[in-house]
Amino acid sequence: MTCDYCFQVIGSLFDSFFMHATRRSQPMKKHFFLLLPLALLSLLLPGQIKADTPAIPHVIDTQVSEGAESLSLAVYFTMMDGSGKPYAEVPLQTATLQFENGSSYPATLDKPAFYMALLLDASGSMRDVLGEMKEAAIAAINAAPEEVQFAVIRFDEQIDLLQAFTNDHSQAIAAVNSMEIDNSGTCLYDVATTTTQALQQLSQDTPYRSMILFSDGRDETSQTAGGACSQNTFEQLVAVATEGELPVPIHTVGIAGSQNRIDAAALTSLSQDTGGLSAVGDQDVRDQTFKQIMDGVRAQWVARARLMPSLGYHRGMLLLTQEDQRRLAPAGISLTSMRDYVVAPPPAAAPVSVEISNFTYDRDADTLVFDVALTSSEKVGTLQIEIIDKIDNVQAARQIQNRPAISQRIIMDASPLTADRRYLVKVHPIDFNGSTIKDGAGSALEASHEFRYDPIKTLTMQIDSVAINDQKATIDFPSLRIQDDEPTILFSIHVTNPDLAAHYEGRFLNQENQQVGEPFHLIFSTQAGHDNFKAQTPLSLEGGHYRVFVHAMSANGDDLASADYRFRYQPPSAPLVQTIRAWQDNPLLTIISLLLLIATLFFGWRLGRWYGMRKAKNTYKEWLPADALLVPKGKPAAMPRVRLRVLESPDKSIVNGSGQLLTRLPFTIGRDESDLSITNDRHVSRRHATISYEQGIFYIEDNGSSNGTFVNEARIAVRQPTPLSVDIGAKIRIGKTTNLSFSEETE
Q1: Cα separations (Å) of 705 from 272, 669, 670, 674, 734?
Q2: Residue 206 predicted with pLDDT over 80
Q3: Residue 605, SS3?
Q4: What's the Rg (C-alpha) of the chain?
Q5: In the CATH hierarchy, which fold is given to the domain comprising 460-575?
Q6: Is there a contact between 99 and 314 (Cβ–Cβ < 8 Å)?
């Protein structure tokens, strides 16, 4: 496919749009403006700190058209919820554009056209799923609101326009149903790049455009020949889609006769890198994805107004109200007028007013975040912001904002506040003389917001020390029996918010990171201080070095927090030594023991002398072989011959059938400078994993990689050697997409 052919088809694709577009009398100038710091992406916390507005406008683009007597302004914006997601259905009623000089203009609200291209893979690999792909494309059309204009494009190694942009959804469905399959390859990246470039031409009239790509995600000449079909690469496509201030989102839908044919990683990465959504799965997954895409379309609005500004740069706000008369948070706008349209003196500056909106609490940063909007901000020198404890009526925090703008984001540290108490935020505008600005009634002008401070509670735990109580043995003289104690281990643990845990359990690991004994439950028997606890449990370990883990568990079985501690356990002396020490504590028992020892030595000497004389008379050398007394020495077992094979990887250069015989261990696996270097897999870390051999067992250890190491589909723990079964073979996955096999070499 040549670029000339691509642009011919794309030219006809948009003919219908440009033929019906309104011609403007003056050149259109598009400006992308610095948004005032509004709370567009803050977290709303229902039941804790309630926001004043249910939705937040996010300005996407503003377009200015200079006229003879006035200036036309179109403000494209998206309604977002408190978590930054599109707010699909917002009942907006009125819109007003207000500027810093006090001028205000009413604006009309409308739903703008949204241009969406459907790209359908018609290569030979899609023959078995042609019907499923058509159903998915039709489902996307049926889910769309009426303002969406669809274009239908069929592609394989060529690109064919089946339907130019139309708001008649029945025509788009008919174009989908007319599609046929050829036994050709898939030049996926060329087609997507060309369509993206054509969609970007629509930014002169609207910023709302995207595409949905239906394909198995493989760019290849054919299923049998193999090899890339496109001249453009994945990276070039992403660069074209994201260039400029308004990227073109590429939504992807993975469809193939076999799930193994779908390159899910490529489709997902393409959507993530361009701001789109990806659906790889059954019809329910696709329907949910189409709903999210179309909810984003329904959240788009445009406000249009005719202005008469003065020459130069102007800043202002887009003010919106809902049908219930609720005012939404203001959105910042700006424009540059190339001429002076003012024919009369501007209206007198409005009195100063102040308003708090979008009040949220950032639990991660422990900060209060809210917006303060002003009218006639040029009269305000500073803003005095204070937090008042409602119960004690004392000031808990204070902050000064110098030279405030028409709207500003305020961030205040919440650490001085006390949990579960109610507070009042007050904002007072101060003039340039340092006096409090008054309202119309002569009272100090202020805005206030009441909230309850409820920071997130997390359980943290640290083992400060362990102590082992294991006393030496004693003797019960009436029964002449040794009485040994029952050793216990005493934990000193520092815990914050311990009530969040339902119970605490522990386990012991030896030097080989193998669990010793059964897990045990901890019961805090004593408390030393506010958050320092002590717990005791029986101990049944042999001597050696150990590591104890203690886990705080929720009622649902979730691990809330864990702590570990290394210690060495040395049991007391052997029972015989303990007995001797017990005898030393009793003089009478010591005398009896000495007499018994002397008698034993005497009779042992006599018996040994007699046995030596008998042995001297025997002549063993006459009937024993010469080598009978030689003891054969054992040889250490040789390391089994094992082979590591690369079954599947984005780095095609290392995929091999016979694999690699491991003759030197440890054996490292990573992205570079490793025994096995996987250079073209971005999910592999620089030093990802290590294979080692010790005491007849092969181990694999994850070196702290980002995407993990998996043995037989189970993710192994970081920096903990995991045994590999060479007799039956083991499947190893490095990161997300590189699969290996590890097995013993058969003769």
Answers
A1: 22, 11, 9, 14, 9
A2: no
A3: helix
A4: 39
A5: Immunoglobulin-like (2.60.40)
A6: yes
